[in-house]
Amino acid sequence: MDWTALGVSIRLSFWTMVVLLFVGTPVAYWLAFSRWRLKFAVEAIVALPLVLPPTVLGFYVLVSIGPRSPLGRLYREVTGDTLPFSFKGLLLASVLYSLPFAVQPFASAFGSVDQRLIEASRCLGSSSWKTFRRIIFPLSLPGVVTGMILSFAHTLGEFGVVLMVGGNLAGRTRTASISIYDDVQALNYNAAFQTSMLLLGVSFAVLAITYAMRRTLWAAWPTR
Amino acid sequence: MADEIIVDIEKRFPGGATIRANFRLNLAAASTAILFGPSGAGKTTLLRSIAGLERPEQGLIQFRDEVWFDHARSIHQSPGLRKVGLLFQDYALFPHLTVRKNIEYGLDHLSKPDRRRVSDEVMGLFEITDLADRRPREVSGGQAQRVALARAVAPRPRILLLDEPLAALDVPTRARLRTELRRLLEQIRIPSLMVTHDRTEAISLGHQIVVMAENEVRQAGCVNEVFRHPADAKVAGILGVETILRGVVVHLDAGLARVLVGPTEVCSVVLGELREREAVLVCIRAEDVTLQRDKHKIESARNHLAGTIQSIESDGAVERISLDCGFSLVAIITRTSREDMGLGIGTSVTASIKASAIHLIRL
């Protein structure tokens, strides 16, 4: 049973979720309220990780953060470190990989806030930022929490992207799903079984909490 | 000082109609102007354009000496900069905030104690102090209207825009709140512009009226004047021609009210509640007034008013006749019957009106 790998998985999922809250929110806001003609293209790009093989996404991320790429060079000049096969590189890849799981629930929650409440806020002299902070975001909280939990759960189960970008470094980039693969390769079925059970339990618990909240807490949420 | 608002705009809808509006109004401090017209005439869109929530394709909107919208100069001020208070049809209260927080929402420019002082003051005025800590879903329709009005009024807007403020309520509540709304609008002394398609609301709340039909402004002016002299057959069809007078109830008996209008007394059937010595608006539709040359027949009409003809306006086959019978009254008759009766300016006639045709509106 690889507790270290599980720790890496949970740490990665947690930080992915936090980053997506801050990155996904403006993207979702733009998607919900923009009237740009080519918005559909951006929507398609955001949804791409849903259908793209994780290895393809992982490969592109690996190439674009490699030491020869502009991004990789810039990162090394600023921090003196490299991104591939590091936790931060893995985090970047995970954020991209789980982007639609956060952005889509966020955007649909923002978009379903009653338009007249937004107009009422504007008529009372509020800026877009205040309207977002005081009206749109609080009323979208159920959707935001759903998006965060989904992105957490999705990151917890990722495999292909991690393998491509993170490699398999114990304590740094070896996640639970990779440790299961390693155990199976080494015919260590017992350890694989235990880690799998644990992942199954954690994933089920997270989703069960989400759906339970939808039924009790959010059912009483003052959205109309 | 009266605030002048000038509107001259065109607003297009994709694949739909174009709304044209052109009017100017002088709004005195406690006065209400009505945007009147049938549903779908473009009233709400016009109101939203004035608020700054819609951007017209053409034209100009000016308030006092401030340009709110000018297509030619690409000026389109945000609703916040225009300092308008908008009351939405279904109130649009923020469901996650308490009544107090709703009212304080537009007061961010004030310090916290000042916000509290203003919200206390406004809640006191609107008699909703008890509701301060409730959420919008915990208040009744009538209370929600007062909360919404309080929220719109708290930042002291320069003009109040009301979009069918009574339409969301059931009929008995509507009659009660109409009286209440009138009182509140008089108290806060902010000029207001109100959209409605209800004649009674227009008559009882409005001082001036802008009539819209088929996406166009057809007439603008004083309520009394517009009802008495509609500009064209279309406006007359929407409003009906009507004499509106102020009166005082002097006697109530067996479902009939005697109302004193100037020196003249009229008799009306009472519908709903009414008290003696109460001030009312007396409404008489011109179609309900019949004219006779002498007063000798006994007939079913309760009111027989002696008067002289002041003016005759022709509107095709029918004519609008203004009488002086202690107050000014408009009657509509056909040209042929006027000719048969030999009526002309200065002729003495008796005007008969059934008691059930006189409509009283409480003030």
Overview of the structural elements:
- The complex is a heterodimer of chains A (224) and B (363).
- Chain A has one domain (3-220): MetI-like (MetI-like fold, Orthogonal Bundle).
- Chain A has 224 residues and is an all-alpha fold.
- The termini of chain A are far apart.
- Chain A contains ten helices and no strands.
- Chain B has a six-stranded mixed sheet, with helices on both faces. A five-stranded antiparallel sheet of chain B has the order 2-1-4-5-6. In chain B, strands 14-13-12-15-21 form a five-stranded antiparallel sheet.
- Chain B folds into two domains: 3-240, P-loop containing nucleotide triphosphate hydrolases (Rossmann fold), CATH 3.40.50.300; 243-362, OB fold (Dihydrolipoamide Acetyltransferase, E2P) (Beta Barrel), CATH 2.40.50.100.
- Chain B is of the alpha+beta class and 363 residues long.
- Chain B contains ten helices and 21 strands.
- Chain B has helices at 43-51, 79-82, 99-104, 112-125, 141-153, 171-188, 199-205, 223-228, 233-239, 335-341; strands at 3-12, 18-27, 32-36, 58-63, 66-70, 75-76, 84-87, 159-163, 192-196, 208-213, 216-222, 242-253, 256-261, 264-269, 279-285, 290-292, 303-315, 318-324, 328-334, 348-353, 358-362.
- The relative contact order of chain B is 0.12.
- Chain B starts with a strand and ends with a strand.
- The chains are: A mainly alpha (224), B alpha+beta (363).
